[in-house]
Design a protein that fits this description.
single chain, alpha+beta
Length: 517
């Protein structure tokens, strides 16, 4: 089977085939809408892992490209993607995303937007989008009655095309969503809901069309809706885009992208091993006579009960239940045709290959570590180092986009009068906010105690060496100068209080007499 990337490279200018291009472009560069759509569908097939290679074979068969039969026995795509919903924003709101802002008036309206958006559930879906597709799209929108403003998840496949400015903010965007409606006669009609946001021309347009997402807007006819963007009280496209990994391309790179060829090779090895194991799964016995007649000739194989003489002469095999027997004449023997394969070595080769896959998909280490419960927190962090780095990058990209989506929703909601005093507007900087730092891996009690003991030992050593305790606190605990100054003041006051207590406990002496006993 040719690799999917090499397959795509053969089609520099692929032509439409059965309504879909055969190109399976798996590089991060998407030259047009069809290639992006194909890529998203392929990644989704890897994630669900049901009939994976049947789906891919359908793409290849249309171009008359041969593909060997594979089974997705060793496909780690699902586990890799699921690492991110469990780690990106885990837990319940607001603890999952603790808001940090100098404007205290922001927290309540943002949490209200979360409630209106059902963000507690949708944030997990968005996390899967980011890891699986490499892209996350959110839209700030208001309900038809303008009583709520919410964050709407957009399937990356439906974002046909978009342009951004130098900051990465979307300036032009086309979205094509497949929808259906049922007419009074019971017939169901499928159509595309197409909307285009165009800030350079201050236009928002909507079509309901029967063409496809690649049809230019000039050929879609008269829009069903035409409005200026300014009529919404905004001057921006209310859509944000985040990338799982930014490779400098228009769209992001999926968490699975570096390992697709290696996943295919692992499945090829697992499929071949399975074929060898089950190729000769029917037991074959030899039914033979071990004696000769008076002239020294071997006797024919014995007949079984219920078998007539004619049938015994014509048939060379007998089936009893699930067993098949070969009828051999006396003094004959049978040599097994099943090859003596070292299945253990083949399995070890496959396992070594899966370890190689872990180098590109370090999230898999977390699942392997579940089998070892004796690892310390420090050991876990060291082993998960590459996965944590990928998670930190994805979290940073996603949260930056989420902040922009909040700011858009606050602007729209403020224009509709849905919130009280927000302390200003976006232009004044009142909507600036972020999220507090959270541990990627929660620290357990034992690890906290071990860390505290190690820090105390290090601080004692520094003080014994003549380093002021305040400097030690700054070095070991990361204190600021203000925190160190406050500690010094409180420490001085505590020393004075102790000295005063010691003086109060001293016995009084009689004037001119010896001290009291």
């Amino acid at each position: 089977m040719p690799s999917l990337t090499s397959y795509a490279s053969r089609y520099v200018n692929p032509q439409p085939l059965y309504g879909m291009r055969p190109s399976l472009m798996l590089t991060t560069t998407h030259r047009d809408t069809t290639e992006a759509t194909d890529l998203y569908r392929i990644l989704r097939a890897y994630y669900y892992n049901n009939n994976l290679y049947d789906a891919l074979a359908d793409y290849l068969r249309r171009s008359e490209t041969w593909k060997e039969a594979l089974k997705p026995f060793r496909n780690p795509a699902f586990r890799t993607v699921e690492f991110y919903p469990a780690s990106l924003w885990p837990g319940a709101l607001p603890d999952a995303l603790p808001i940090k802002s100098e404007n205290a008036a922001l927290e309540e309206p943002i949490q209200q937007i979360w409630k209106w958006s059902n963000w507690s559930a949708h944030k997990q879906v968005v996390a899967r989008d980011l890891a699986l597709y490499g892209d996350m799209f959110l839209k700030a929108a208001a309900t038809d009655n303008q009583q709520r403003v919410y964050l709407q998840r957009i399937e990356p496949e439906y974002v046909t095309d978009f342009d951004t400015d130098e900051r990465g903010f979307i300036q032009w965007c086309r979205i094509d969503v497949p929808l259906s409606r049922r007419h009074r006669d019971g017939m169901q009609e499928w159509y595309w809901h197409t909307e285009v946001w165009d800030t350079p021309n201050n236009l928002y347009r909507v079509w309901e069309q029967q063409h496809n997402p690649t049809t230019p807007t000039e050929q879609l006819g008269t829009p069903k809706v035409t409005q200026t963007i300014a009529s919404f009280g905004i001057d921006f496209v209310p859509i944000v885009h985040a990338k799982f990994a930014d490779m400098g391309e228009k769209r992001g790179m999926s968490s699975l992208m570096p390992a697709l060829d290696k996943i295919d090779e692992a499945n090829r090895q697992a499929t071949r091993l399975s074929q060898m194991l089950f190729r000769h799964n029917a037991v074959t016995w030899a039914l033979k006579a071990n004696s000769m007649d008076a002239s020294g000739r071997p006797l024919p194989a014995p007949r079984l009960p219920g078998e007539d003489e004619q049938g015994a002469q014509e048939s060379t095999t007998v089936t009893l239940g699930d067993d098949r027997m070969l009828k051999l004449p006396g003094m004959s023997d049978i040599v097994p045709l099943v090859p003596q394969i070292d299945y253990g070595s083949a399995l070890a080769t496959l396992q070594d290959h899966m370890r190689e896959v872990e180098q590109d998909l370090p999230e898999l280490v977390a699942y392997r570590m579940m089998q070892n419960t004796d690892l310390s927190g420090r050991a876990v962090r060291l082993m998960l180092g590459p996965a944590i780095k990928r998670l930190e990058e994805a979290r940073g990209n996603a949260e930056a986009a989420l902040v922009r989506a909040h700011q858009m929703a606050l602007t729209i909601g403020g224009n509709l009068g849905l919130f009280g005093n927000l302390g200003g507007d976006f232009d004044s900087g009142a909507f600036e906010h972020g999220f507090e730092e959270r541990d990627i891996l929660p620290t357990d009690d034992l690890e906290s105690a071990q860390t505290a003991q190690a820090n105390a030992t290090a601080l004692s050593a520094m003080v014994a060496a003549g380093v002021p305790v305040e400097i030690g606190m700054m070095e070991i605990y990361g204190w600021t100068e203000e925190q160190a100054a406050t500690f010094t003041q409180q420490r001085t006051e505590a020393i004075k209080r102790e000295q005063a207590l010691v003086q109060d406990d001293q016995p009084e002496e009689d004037a001119g007499g010896p001290p009291r006993q």
